Amino acid sequence: SLILDLRGNPGGLLGSAVDVANLFVPKGTPIVSTKGRLVMPTVGDSDVKAKLQAQDFDQTYYAEYPPLVPRSTRIVVLVNGETASAAEIVSGALQDHDRAAVVGEKTFGKGLVQQIQRLSQPGTQIKLTIAKYYTPSGRCIQSKSYKQAGVGRYGTVEERFSEASQQSFKTDGGRLVRSAGGIEPDVVVKSRSRGMLERDLCAPFPPRCLPVPSRSGLALWPRSCGSSSPDLSLARAFCLDACQRCQR
């Protein structure tokens, strides 16, 4: 058995997502498709424009090599609301081909393809969204709307899909999966609340306290104050939190 933990994975390169999925599915298996429109550059040499004109932007990416992991290996993919982009491509492909059970929460829903356009002013560029990612069954990964700038947690608005608007697709084995933005897990498991240690380590700012050794064990010194002695109450909470995680 194999557990692929993609929780909190923000994604990466499209090619890397295809390579990872290729480890588990047979050669020639579709992994992801891009559908959209090609925006021709207004600035650039003629060779680049000619190459883009000859390119079919709506394309499907396939597994190019035999799988490394045997078909008999059972796979579970862990996802949550911070699983995005290339990580969603991998989880969606394995789910659609009935290669893995997806467990956790609905993923973030970042399924856009961008293209860089050079502007007339030297050294300036603009990034345009020109396509979206689709899983092998035909589900669109994208679930965010950018029509209202600066709204929401990431400056986006979650698009709400009513039951009537959600399209149903089938996996290779005939299971029904819905297109509601992001990847919906096969088994829903809500994320547990984070402890003090995990919140500090995952925070965008430095931890509130710095763990340091002391005669009585591990103590925490607050970063924000000039105290010359450890805060032992925080040290006890720190050690208790760490011990509980080690016992799980």
Describe what this molecule looks like in 3D.
With about 250 residues, the protein is of the alpha/beta class. Helices cover about 20% and strands about 25% of the residues. The protein has helices at about 15-20, 45-55, 85-95, 195-200, 230-245; strands at about 1-5, 30-35, 60, 75-80, 100-105, 110-120, 125-135, 145, 155-160, 165-170, 175-180, 185-190, 210-215, 215-220. It has a four-stranded parallel sheet with strand order 1-4-5-12. The longest helix is centred in the last third of the chain and has 16 residues, at about 230-245.
Features:
248 residues, four-stranded parallel beta sheet, 5 helices
| Count of separate DSSP helical elements | 5
Alpha-carbon distance between the termini?
Answer: 20 Å
Order of helices and strands: EHEHEEHEEEEEEEEHEEH
Q: What is the strand tally?
A: 14
- List low-pLDDT spans: 212-232
Task: Tell me roughly what share of residues is in helical segments.
Answer: 10-25%
Whole-number mean pLDDT: 77
Q: In order across it, which strands form the biggest sheet?
A: 1-4-5-12
Provide the β-strand percentage band: 25-35%
Rg, please? 23 Å
Going by helix content, strand content and strand pairing, the class is alpha/beta
Largest sheet: 4 strands, parallel
Shape category: globular
